[in-house]
# Entry
Amino acid sequence: MFMSHSIFIFSFFIFGLCIGSFLNVCIYRLPIGKSIAFPPSHCPECRKAIRIYDNIPVLGWLLLKGRCRDCGSPISPRYPVVEFLTGLFAVFTYLKFGLTVNTGVYFIFIAVLIVVTFIDIDHRIIPDKITLPGIPLAFIATFFLPNITWQNSLFGILAGGGSLLLVAVGYSYFTGKEGMGGGDIKLLAMIGALCGWQGVIFTIFTGSVVGSVAGIAAMRRSGEGMKSALPFGPFLSAGAIGYIFWGPEIIHWYLSTMGR
# Structure
């Protein structure tokens, strides 16, 4: 029994590493409008195709010492980081939900949030080609999940998109400036579609707290004040992932303490 459990953990980790390699392709190509299928992976500098044995997740980067085999150009350490992170989340979802449909749905959702996070960090955008189809697909997925109803999903979409839309409109009205992009609004609507309205509240609160701490730290380190403001998408994604793994338990604990 222990041996089979260990094999499942190892298998999920390897599977996650491979998916992480694909996520790197999406992170690089989606914002610049390139196909994620063709051409095959290649060095962006010399354009030479990456050999199969050099494209092994994490290990390939380590063996190449972070440089292209053909031209010697540096390869960002983000590539193995994304692969390793995706591998870990594959294991975490399995350990949390077991061999159930929840594991598949939530792992795909987390993989999408990883792509969103790194694209937003690099380009300060959250592509509509991810969130707009993601909202109805997340809604459909709730019909196969035992812990959320389709009604809660609809409320989540309205609460997620509507709450940030109100914040964005209010901020623009009182300051005359755009304070929150439409990408964040659609991202939270997508999160609400899979996590429900409770997940939206948890995500906004957690994302705001973590984002505020990180933003203050970034401003103090750079000395540029608000010019060093960080994109909000990564913090919304972190809040949503936190809700998937611990949110209902934290909410239950909080409500129980309030009721004492």
